[in-house]
Amino acid sequence: MRWFLAIFTGLFFAASATGGPPEILEPGLSVMQVDVGLWLHRSDKDWEGNGNPITSNGVFVIGERAIAMIDTAWTDDQTAKLIDWAEERFGLPVRHVFATHWHWDKMGGMAEVNRRGINGYALDLSARLGEEHDIDPPRVTFKKSTRVQLGNETIEAYYAGPGHTIDNTVVWLESRRILVGGCLIKSDSSKGLGYIDDADVPAWGPTLGRVLERYADADRVVPGHGEIGDLSLIHHTRRLIAKHLERPDASAP
């Protein structure tokens, strides 16, 4: 029976992640349920002003008495709308907000988080880099890892080393066996490493090796952009890294 439930749950999660209808909060801002008590949020920004917005992923974890948010949206305004939606939808306060690195797509709404008095969490290096780029730092920082209890759910933020940025972390939802990889992990549809101006590409592969070793029993992986997958996304990202190191001029988004 246990194996049947595991398969059923995995199929439900996968189907919801790829086929469930999103709720559109406004153009370029949406939420979509991917599991019981777990919602994917997506926000768009036309970063280069070329009419091709970039869609960034984040997650809401709905606890019994509070909500955790993993990664903000690009802007304070988008983040405010997402937090308002979550609190109104579930009748619970957002108590914790994790940022997986300092870039705007993951920490750009931290000023709104701070304004509301919510505990934001990020690597101390992320906080410093954010401040250098006029992004508000979170209220709580850590050096290697931190854990927060959300009812029965243990949420762990962990720094395995440089990669997409020198400060990128991952977030582990222990009881769900879900890894939120941020931009350290690329989606299956990614043909290259994307934006790497702040990356440490040679260190990226070994960092992913440490992530894979620590979270080897992950069932699902949420990349920073694109569709949800499983641990094969880590292997896919490592192949993209190897390809880039062989031919740096061949990198694609």
Describe this structure in words.
This protein is α/β, with parallel strands linked by helices and 253 residues long. It has one domain: 4-Layer Sandwich (Metallo-beta-lactamase, Chain A). It contains seven helices and 13 strands. It has an eight-stranded mixed beta sheet with strand order 1-2-3-4-5-6-7-8. The longest helix has 18 residues, at 2-19. It is globular.
List keywords for this structure.
253 residues; alpha/beta; Metallo-beta-lactamase, Chain A; 7 helices; 28% strand; disordered N terminus
Overall spatial form: globular
Q: Which residues form runs of ≥5 with pLDDT under 50?
A: 1-19
Percent of residues in helices: 25-40%
Q: How many distinct helices?
A: 7
**Strand-residue proportion:** 25-35%
User: Structural class given helices, strands, pairing?
Assistant: alpha/beta
Largest sheet, strands/sense/barrel: 8 strands, mixed
